[in-house]
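Could you help me review a protein record that somebody else here produced? My question to you is simply how this chain folds and whether the tokens agree. Thanks in advance; the entry in question is below:
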Amino acid sequence: MKLPDDPALATATLDTPIGRLRLAATEAGLAAILFPNQKDVPLSAREGSAKARAHLDKAVKALNRYFEGKERDFSGLTLAAEGTAFQKSVWAALARIPFGETRSYADIARAIGNPKGVRAVGLANGRNPIPIVVPCHRVIGADGSLTGFGGGLPTKKWLLEFEGIETPSFV
């Protein structure tokens, strides 16, 4: 993942049950959420602009509420994920997966009108820069198996079970 090269970029860290998340926002909105295992993406502390900081503060509050079990929908956040038109269409479909539900890659491919694009959906899902808020963790294999996840499969399992979804006992 590459973060926006933006002098207004604001960053924050958030301690959660799945570890310390790193967040970044631009003046356009929330741009990235990084899991603890994503140490290969440099993200230094930056105050950023007031507008970027406002987006970041709103995201931190919403994520805190999510981990407290009080937030199920992040539609009030302004998102500024950078990606191709195809990736953005996949991410929009991910954002429509309700809390406590899952979809397969094939379901997402059909939802965006590209039923043969299952592999491409998987790649776009893996490049989602705003996990949890854009719930790529809710995408599972057609057989119900947990599949790759940027935060690691134990984190994916934790998030799904936190949302009340039964997961396979192996991971």
